[in-house]
């Protein structure tokens, strides 16, 4: 593993070039350019705000609901778009994979990094909207890099795994679309994680839905942490932050190990 990481580090310039290529291709011949990365979350923010605070003719369950939704959508999009793009990153570069030697993991990782950059570029939009809405940053904002790193590690781990699987099972990319849609609604993006019941009867068993959502859905903990730091202005409980970090690190290690194990066969499969 250490040798593979050393080799990957040696190709860091290639990784950066592919990341820049992904960003340039995405916004080539676009009038608004990178501003399009803001349009989708802003549109979804508007729709969710209308649905949950206007059309239901009831008061908003959260003050400044639009800001709450926006940070969740930005974080989710960074994850979901990365995973979907990474799934086809190897197969889309088949000629390169067959003819040139380089660590294949740079292909999905370039997709992840380009979306991470998009996410960072989009954060000022959130801060501007939050400030206008009366939400002020607190000193707990200094913990944001910890959540960002957990977010990046988990996204990279899942992306590496699906990129490898899609080379051998081309249905992976299609299955992902369905799974990500279900995952979206199971993640506290447009509702606070605190509304999940602590005791619910499922199949005759008493289940702490709140606790098991945080344990089994890393994106739930990651987005809840963004809500804590950027919306509520409080710190995330250390035990959940630590568990999220451990889960993200394990996901990255397992995803990378799977990718390295299967990558020698990529050239003959693409």
TrEMBL record:
GO terms for biological process: lipopolysaccharide transport. Residues 32-262 form the ABC transmembrane type-2 domain. Pfam families: ABC2_membrane. It is a multi-pass membrane protein. It comes from the Bacteria. Keywords: Cell inner membrane, Cell membrane, Membrane, Transmembrane, Transmembrane helix, Transport. InterPro entries: ABC2_TM, ABC2_TM_bact-type, ABC_2_transport. GO terms for molecular function: ABC-type transporter activity. The chain crosses the membrane at residues 34-55, 67-87, 107-129, 141-169, 175-196, 240-259. GO terms for cellular component: ATP-binding cassette (ABC) transporter complex. It is found in: Cell inner membrane; Cell membrane. Belongs to the ABC-2 integral membrane protein family. This is Transport permease protein. It comes from Thermoflexus hugenholtzii JAD2.
